[in-house]
Design goal:
Blueprint (H helix, E strand, L loop, with lengths): L1 H17 L15 H4 L4 H17 L23 H14 L6 H17 L10 H11 L7 E3 L6 H13 L7 E2 L5 E2 L9 H9 L2 E5 L2 H13 L6 E4 L13 E6 L23 H11 L1 E12 H5 L4 H13 E8 L13 E8 L5 E6 L20 H10 L6 E5 H6 L22 H30 L1
Parallel strand pairs: 1-4, 1-6, 4-5, 6-7, 8-10
Antiparallel strand pairs: 2-3, 7-9, 8-9, 10-11
């Protein structure tokens, strides 16, 4: 509600500067502006927001920044306590978020989302931001490429992909970095053409989700990060109603695990004989990628090793024989704590071609403690090493290559433990004959000592 007025004022200022005509989205509804009702007493404020402002937002249909209004139709205003609403409005006003830069506004929203998850609301947990950033670095989206997350949730992958592209088009001397490697001052000064900005903000990022709450959160999250027309829409991307014909350059995703879908509702494009969502999503990524398109996706380790169903083996065979499976990066099991202790890995693959060898990397830490508290250590852990060695395709202590033939012989299993090289340390051992002689000499000394003790005992008894 606050953001709508801020954006409306900004657009009015830009229009005046360009000498263009401007029409406010509040025209005829001036009493819906944040500045109009923010100082009302608690009882009056609750009544006004509930009966006037909220219905106004639900019925907005025009304007670049109100795309989310179509998903507000079924929303309910949940705050029923006048003092709670008044306190929330007061705190937001004191924060003066509008005066902060785009990154700070986005960070504030991300923090609020993390608090929602800690409270156990919405029933979903988010992919940690530093893990998302690592995956985006590995897949390296570029200006002009389309990016899709078919299970986008709060939009974290799409936002980080946007920031990655802008960062790579910002002069290095302008950029600043936080202790965990997050880049700031992303102004994209190297993007000089208006049509390129239009392409980046309006026709680059696409997300789908089947929960309206996630869509509302994701849309606002992207708007606060500078993407004025987010292409996030309601869809069950595994169902018959989802259009798999649309093809994208990049897929970034962490889809729901351990779920299942009604067999009669499964999209006809799937070839795998399964109802398990973690397997179907993996096939979906392939289906909606362009030839030569790249993917960085998170899967539970069961997808990589299970032989409990033919579909598990079929999927792995499919990824290896229809794609170039470039890397399998196993992550510590505590990455998703406190919400889940599931063991997961990141798959990186290119659609088309065939795999000759796979690069494996075993992450031991991600820069945070792996207990439920997930306390900050350095925010990086093995991540810089993963990125550097993936690009250089190096074999180091935690990584190695495995030939495709060896993987085929092992039921197409893709877990590092099946192929990890056992390194035995060379030990300099003494000649066995010398050791035997030393033992014999020691035995003689012991026998001599025992004989002496025996004689002493006998003399004392006489």
């Amino acid at each position: 509600m606050k953001r709508l007025e801020v954006l409306d004022i900004q657009h009015e200022q830009h229009a005046k500067a360009k000498g263009e005509k401007f029409e406010s989205i509040f025209k005829g509804n001036e009493n819906c502006r944040w500045s109009y009702w923010k100082n009302m007493n608690a009882e009056e404020m609750l009544k006004h927001v509930n009966n006037v402002v909220f219905p106004f937002i639900q019925n907005l249909t025009d304007g670049e920044d109100v795309l989310y209004s179509q998903y507000m139709k079924s929303a309910t205003f949940m705050i029923q306590k006048p003092s709670l609403l008044q306190e929330a409005v007061s705190i937001l006003d004191e924060l003066n978020i509008t005066a902060q830069n785009q990154d700070t506004q986005g960070d504030t929203y991300e923090y609020l989302l993390s608090e929602l998850q800690i409270s156990g609301k919405n029933g979903q947990f988010r992919t940690p931001r530093h893990i998302i950033r690592m995956m985006v670095e590995l897949v390296d989206p570029k200006l002009g490429e389309t990016v899709c997350d078919p299970a986008c949730g709060t939009g974290g992958f799409l936002i980080n992909a946007y920031q990655h592209i802008v960062k790579n088009n910002t002069s290095p001397d302008i950029l600043q970095y936080s202790s965990d490697g997050t880049a700031y001052n992303l102004i994209g000064d190297k993007i000089t053409k208006k049509e390129h900005w239009d392409l980046l903000k309006n026709r680059t990022f696409y997300g789908f989700d089947f929960e309206y709450t996630m869509i509302r959160i994701g849309l606002m999250n992207m708007i606060l990060h500078g993407i004025r027309k987010p292409n996030i829409t309601y869809a069950d991307s595994l169902s018959k109603r989802f259009d798999q014909a649309k093809q994208y350059d990049i897929i970034l995703a962490n889809p729901p695990f351990a779920g299942s879908i009604d067999k009669g509702d499964i999209n006809d494009n799937f070839k795998l004989d399964t109802t398990k969502t973690e397997l179907l999503f993996s096939e979906l990524f392939y289906n909606i990628l362009k030839i030569g398109g790249r993917a960085a996706v998170i899967v539970p380790n069961g997808v990589l090793s299970s032989v409990s169903t033919g579909a598990h083996v079929d999927l792995r065979r499919f990824l290896l024989e229809k794609c170039q499976l470039e890397a399998v990066i196993s992550m510590p099991s505590g990455v998703f704590k406190p919400y889940s202790n599931v063991s997961t890995s990141i798959l990186l693959f290119v659609k088309g071609g065939k795999t000759k060898k796979v690069w494996f990397f075993e992450m031991e830490n991600d820069g945070y403690t792996l207990d439920d508290k997930r306390e900050f250590i350095d925010g990086k852990g093995d991540i810089p090493t993963v990125i550097r060695n993936f690009r250089e395709k190096k074999e180091i202590e935690k990584s190695f290559f495995v030939d495709i033939m060896k993987i085929k012989e092992n039921n197409y299993k893709l877990t590092p433990s099946n192929y990890k090289k056992i390194i035995s340390e060379k030990t300099d051992l003494e000649d066995p004959l010398i050791i035997i002689n030393e033992i014999m000499n020691l035995e003689e000394e012991i026998q001599s000592e025992l004989k002496t003790i025996k004689n002493m005992i006998q003399k004392s008894n006489q």
